[in-house]
Amino acid sequence: MTRVVLASGNAGKLREFAAMLADAGIELVPQDAYDVAPAIESAPTFVENALAKARNAARHTGLPAIADDSGLEVDVLDGAPGVHSARYAGANADDMANNRKLLETLADVPAERRGARFRAVLVYLRHPEDPAPLIAEGTWSGSIGTRLRGDAGFGYDPLFELGDGRTAAELPAEEKNLLSHRGQALAALRRRLDAA
Known about the structure:
The chain is 31% helix and 22% strand. By secondary structure, the chain is α/β, with parallel strands linked by helices. A 6-stranded mixed β-sheet has the order 2-1-3-4-5-6. α1 links the parallel β1 and β2. α1 crosses α5 and α4 (173-179) crosses α5.
């Protein structure tokens, strides 16, 4: 087993990543286990933020690192909240506050204009100065509902509606891992790791 630090303290992400990497010979440990302070996410793109997080975690632990930066892009909001998804309702906002703000912002937007997608960018660094990081991306298209539904998942999952009418928070974990932006990005990253 190769020990790899996940450059996140998000318990939901750790569960998803650990489940998807269980058979890959990777023991995933959250950066919190090493008292790694979160990296500053000030870049305008998902890939730059993911690289900053992975470098920070690898530098402080001496381990290979996986980081993701992901977010929700709403068409009528010109791609917002985007890289600011986790802080949409403010610096210390939680999932509920972010969901409330999104519902309020879209209150008068009709169903046909509520298209959205989740985007995830994953970065794998062998060491902090890795000159050839492995980078993978995934997207998951849907729309924004008018009320929260479902109790699985995290973040915007209770608002993110799929074509069949279910929200991401109503999916069993195995199905979500196959369909999701993070699942797609992780599958692509695993292919790159296997080929490396």
